[in-house]
Design a protein that fits this description.
The structure is a homodimer.
Chain A (H helix, E strand, L loop, with lengths): L7 E5 L3 H12 L3 E5 L3 H9 L12 E6 L6 H11 L2 E6 L5 H9 L7 E6 L20 E5 L6 H13 L3 E4 L2 H25 L5 H5 L3 H6 L7 H10 L1 H25 L4 H24 L11 E9 L4 H11 L6 E6 L5 E9 L3 H10 L3 E2 L1
Parallel strand pairs in A: 1-2, 1-3, 3-4, 4-5, 6-7
Antiparallel strand pairs in A: 5-6, 8-10, 8-11, 9-10
Helix pairs in contact in A: 3-4, 6-10, 10-11
């Protein structure tokens, strides 16, 4: 890749994100120096091939601050005081607060561009690191008006070397956006899941894929999420208040639907239906997968048996006609003989897949 | 199956649920008579093999009332007045209200057992019907103290013939349970999705799998869901109010986390963490799939390429060692070269699968 100009980098903090970025940079020929307050973490990352534990002998091209969010401003300003790098970035999941704090500590904002790679795993620490952790993920950069173009470009180069998709946003807009698509939904999922904590066993047994999917993120580590939510607390609080108002309207609509007066019932039904329609409109806007518009995909549903090999046979038949299945959802039951596989395929390949599956005697529905 | 005693049945209402039940009964040798206010629907169902359009010449063993929920009490009582069957059941998704209403219309409650098969599809109508629609699904029955044992057994037989899992509950407990695991979550998903309706395009672009899974059910038909929610309105309203109180606590906790006073911040963090922990506990209770405990499964994550055939190759390798993949989640990005496949496998087969995939040079993480 002849646009690559980064020769060396310093990664400070070798947890999951820092070590993964270091692995990616190293794999692309960048000399990576590793630093971490925990000597064990830096040794593990180095032994995985993320870089060298030796301190850089000269000023590096880019310093990546991958320490816990609350420590970012102090570490960033300290590194700048030592003059270790020409450009600086970080990977904290909240941007506006830390950016202000760094400014208050006399951060050289011309040489710093905030960053947030939107990737993560259930596991943490350098042992969970992977060079392809960021492949295809959005990586937000939050330059300010006084950020040098060279510094922004250095950040963009990091994103490209990690295989991610750069998205430039203002810090405040970023924080509101992640509040909307990640932090507030996380609280909502936890609230719904918390209702199940003391529910009757038979009620919980009736739970299906809807509430299971809705509450999936509630399984995440509470300790980690308190920190994430705390760093974006006021944004999330505002969003939850907006949701709470919508909830009050829904409650009023539902109570009206149970009224004896017919006009009242009709008005309640209109309120509830309007809310459901707005939800449907909002839902349609969510990309089916990163970087793809949902309209480009169609779902094909196939009935399969529960024996080993059925999925293999299905995917073999699909790939025989050159169809790459983009997403798959399996729905079946323990001890039962059949299940459903929902395959998402590019719309223009839909017909050929349906025909092939029919030929191979798969039952579609 | 020598416990089968049902010889004939009348299915009234040949939409998705009625026609699917008729197909299942017919496939198991029961003579099924079909009836629907819409002559086209009944002809379609009959042509699909669901039963005969001829009226029964004698009293049938069971009448299945599969008309829209609001019509159930009237139709049920009318059928009983005509004496068409020895036993009666229905398939409406809400039980207490219709049961009371039927009682007010002088329903013979000894001969009636309420039912709710917990299955459905995105599509409706007889053309979407399948004999295996209910296989492995929970099918709730709501007998009252005066329901005849023979009538309950007739309902249990219907459930068994459809391949579903019977769950006996009181009508009120059922309505509260489906409010908890289905109706209230549906409203919540719609509220979160509605926030995205007018959100900035770049914000929506940052949406990942968390909010996508959370809002999946918000894509459902609003017209249909107004009816469902309306039939269980007060239960859902009560649950949403409970959620709203939790939301107020969360907002207060988050605002406290942004306070200057350290004690206040700590107390806010404790409130938020407590909520997240309760969510985690509730989430753990949801069965990973119907009829299976989540602990019996392990997840194996494999890195795959984006070419056609990769999934086929993976499932072929998995099935080679006799492993049946129980659930699969694909996570990858358009135009990128790698993706992640999360495979759920029975815990006791985990080691053999991991070893086989390693032998076949799959990259696991």
């Amino acid at each position: 890749m002849d646009t690559v100009t980064m020769e060396n980098a310093l990664v400070v903090g070798t947890g999951l994100i820092g070590a993964s970025a270091a692995l990616a940079l190293n794999a692309r020929g960048v000399t990576v120096h590793l630093r971490d307050a925990d000597p064990a973490a830096v040794r593990i990352a180095s032994s995985l091939g993320a870089g060298t534990v030796e301190a850089p002998q000269e000023r590096v091209d880019l310093a990546v601050v991958a320490v816990p969010p609350a420590l970012v401003p102090g570490v960033l300003v300290g590194l700048q005081a030592d003059g270790v790098a020409r450009h600086y970035t970080d990977v904290a999941s909240v941007k506006a607060g830390p950016q202000q704090e760094a400014l208050a500590l006399a951060c050289d904002t011309a040489r710093y561009v905030g960053g947030h790679p939107m990737a993560g795993r259930e596991r943490s620490g350098p042992l969970a690191a992977r060079p392809d952790l960021f492949v295809g993920c959005n990586w937000v950069l939050t330059p300010t008006p006084d950020t040098d173009t060279d510094t922004l470009n250095s950040g963009l180069e990091l994103v490209a070397l990690c295989g991610a998709v750069p998205v430039v946003m203002e810090a405040v807009a970023h924080d509101r956006a992640v509040g909307l698509v990640s932090h507030a939904p996380h609280v909502v999922a936890s609230l719904v899941a918390a209702l199940l904590e003391r529910a009757d066993e038979r009620a919980v047994r009736l739970a299906g894929s809807g509430v299971r999917d809705l509450t999936r993120i509630a399984a995440a580590d509470p300790g980690l999420w308190v920190d994430i939510l705390g760093a974006n607390a006021l944004v999330v609080a505002d969003l939850l208040e907006e949701l709470s108002e919508g909830m009050d309207d829904a409650v009023a609509g539902l109570r009206a639907m149970a009224a004896t007066d017919e006009d009242k019932r009709d008005s309640g039904a209109r309120t509830v239906e309007n809310l459901l329609r707005r939800g449907q409109s909002g839902r349609i806007r969510i990309p089916a997968k990163r970087g793809m518009l949902p309209e480009q995909y169609e779902t094909v549903t196939v009935v399969i048996g529960d024996q080993p090999g059925e999925l293999a046979r299905l995917f073999t038949d699909a790939s025989r006609v050159g169809v790459n299945v983009e997403d798959v959802r399996l729905e079946h039951s323990a001890g039962q003989s059949t299940g459903l596989v929902h395959l998402s395929v590019a719309r223009d390949l839909m017909d050929v897949l349906v025909a092939e599956l029919r030929n191979r005697e798969w039952r579609q529905s």
